[in-house]
Amino acid sequence: MERFAVIGMGRFGSRLAKLLTDAGADVIAVDRRADLIETMRDDVARAVCMDATDEETLRNQGIDEVDTAIVGIGTNFEAAVLTTVLLKQMGVSRVITRATTAIRGQILTRIGADDIVNPESESADRWRTRLVAPRIIEHIELAEGFSLIQTAPPKTFVGKTLGEIDMRKNHHVQVIAVRRKAEDTDADGRKRHQEVVISVPTAETTIQEGDVLMLIGSDAALKPFGQ
Asked: Which one, of 216, 188, 184, 221, lies nearest residue 201 by Cα?
């Protein structure tokens, strides 16, 4: 089970912490405000009221042992910077930090943030998918419990035809398209890279390395394709 620390229980952080927990992750929710932590106690594995800019406190609470930390502090940029630096110094392998402007995002990247999130343009729901289902490139909910995803194919699919894989029978999902990078040469002999969309894949369509599959199915059936 992946372990996450979500630091900052504002609107974005609290929703992301709940969504990650619902997806089966082990989540530590952190904020310096006791009232915000109190509202999270029943929604995550552990909710801790503390100052995330204190290295000793972070270590005492096991934050240095999580797989991914999301710094969702939005009102105090200095605290977000210091927390990001401390997490990386403590050895957290992936630190994702909130930035409200492009310049702040550049600063955070330079001081060690592995990824930047802008809650004003990216939803907690989308980040939940990126964190717990890293192979999924895009997730669109079509109806309750039923979605369309774009995902890299499992390595075991590469080199096989769709007929051999038989997605409908063996995986209970439908392949509606395959996106593929292609290379050709222009009139001057220069190589060009472009994307080809196989909008009507057949049983003879062979899955290649680097393909992106567009799949439709129930969320339960699609879940293994995000692992």
From this structure: 216
